[in-house]
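Comment thread on ticket #2218

A.B. wrote:
> Attaching the input chain for the structure job we discussed in standup.
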Amino acid sequence: MSGEFLLKIKRAWKIWFALFLVSLLKPVGVFAQDFEPDQLDELLLLSEENEKGWSSPLNEFGLTGSLRTGYWSSNRLSDNDGDFVASSVWLKLDKRLRRGLTLYSEAYVYDEDTFSGGSTNRQIKEAYLHFRSGDWDYRLGRQIVAWGRADRLNPTDNLTPRDFTLLSPEIDEDRFGTEAIKISKIFGSYSTLTAIWIEHFEPNKLAPTKVPGLQFIKDVPKNDNQYALKFDQSGGQFDWSISYFNGVDLNSDLSLSGLRGSDLLVIESYNDVEIFGADVATISGSNRYAAEISYTKTEDSSGDNPNIKNNSFYGVFALERDFGDDLSLTTQLFYRRVSNYQDPRQIVQQGIRTVASLSALMNNQLDPDEYGLNLRLGKNWFNDTLELEISGATLLARHGFLIRPKLTYAISDQLKVTSGMEYFRGGADTILGLQEANKLLFFESRYYY
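C.D. wrote:
> Ran it. Output below, let me know if you need it in another format.
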């Protein structure tokens, strides 16, 4: 580790300790655990029948939420700025209007640098009506659609975006929804057919691309013809699904547009894709086996256009092992294959070569094959009040790795503190190397109400 990063560790411990003392002064309220959207209706019905646990006047109206504050030694904008005290208010509404009809919404107000007087960000993650009638299930409104059975690496999860700049210790909290209609038909005890129409396209939120000599302009389409289909089989010896998505790529392609002053002008465009996907998982003893694959068909199936991604295959193969005593290990091998590969670094014209190589690097297409290993170790103590997670990833074809330890302690049902770090290292020709400026230490306290 560099000397500058070690100095940040020492400074972080001082700020963490101060924030920890402040967090202990927060009043007692209600703990509200985050659940997957598909579980919310069932959990609401159960909560109405269960008179045990904490209660709050807000809960009578279906409202829960959290107040959060924490120290971050860096942001996720690749700009080398550091030492932030972030704060946010999260609010969730889960209100049963009548039998079978639920109104759900989740939003937050977020200040990345509380003491600098910077701008405040707001995000409505979801806001939809959920209706059930017999074997039919309907959702209408802004919603998150999360697909895939692998652990965090999901080739079939391509419908709704993430905010990769959000400062949160929890990975899946960066998800946010788009306006959509989702209709599901249940067949028997195990099978479901789902159709989704997405009215409005929103891309992934990434750190601004900053390269000397290049200026970037986003070109985000207004596409109202995105749709997806999925057949899912769950509950038997094998859980599996097949899926199809026809819409817009959540990640951009780069193309050279011209000159602006002495800089090259680069357009970040979002092109149409078709994605065919499948996943399968099964449990045998203490092991869970999972595989998830996708094939993406782009507008450049021949591979001749350096401004658009090539067709590609992406697969994840996982083994999750439960050792007992609240100890688990997940091992995943991931592999990407680019069809009709042409090396962008061999393009003769310098400007086109620079932009095409950067686009290929950002989209995991700089090499014809990319493969690596992802690990996650989890251990709980004291009735699950103390949780340790150590996750990491490494590229096997090029030099690059990520280490992410995280420790969470639930002081009470209402108060939780989390600390950890994210450390990126890699060559300049790897996606992990591009994120070296985002390595950070963090501490966050949450009060749930």
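A.B. wrote:
> Thanks. Noting for the ticket: The mean pLDDT is 89.
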